[in-house]
Amino acid sequence: MHLHLGQGGRKRLQIRGRYGDAASTVSVLREHGLLGDYLIAAHCHDTDEAGRELMADAKVKMASCQISISMIDGIVPPLSHYVEDLGGTAGLGKDQAPGPGNHNMFREMRTANLLANVTHQTPTRLPAWKALELATIGGAKVLQLDDRIGSLEVGKLADVITVDLRHPNLFPTVSGLSETSFPT
Length: 184
Hints:
Elements: E1 2-5, H1 9-19, H2 25-31, E2 40-43, H3 49-57, E3 61-64, H4 66-73, H5 79-85, E4 89-92, H6 105-119, H7 128-135, H8 137-142
Parallel strand pairs: 1-2, 2-3, 3-4
């Protein structure tokens, strides 16, 4: 089950209007038995620490869309807290079509790294390798497909890309072209 969970003030007002001032999206889902490892919760930026603890304990998976939420609501999504502090399962995603950055996962990874490091005032809160992990095997774990995709291993399906790092925009290297096809 995929659900936009705790996505800002509008949703918070709707939940409180229906279920009372003490209610949150997480508490309502818990009350109705809807927190579990089958739930993929997108965003979660309007959840509190206690709600995220309930989510992690229930094995809810988070799909974090760092760029769209930081741009739309001016909020840093709680990705690093969910993963690093609570041990939750999460992956990076994209939201908004065509989205800022044209669905560029490299920008999403960079933004996740920057936002976590700035929020926690340390350059090591969400290192680049962890952001890459969240974009690959993390996404596969969220979808419960990590036995088939998400890492380069014998027996798994794989989409492999190569990146020409000589170009600042990470222009993809196309197979079949010679080395001289790219300017140096």
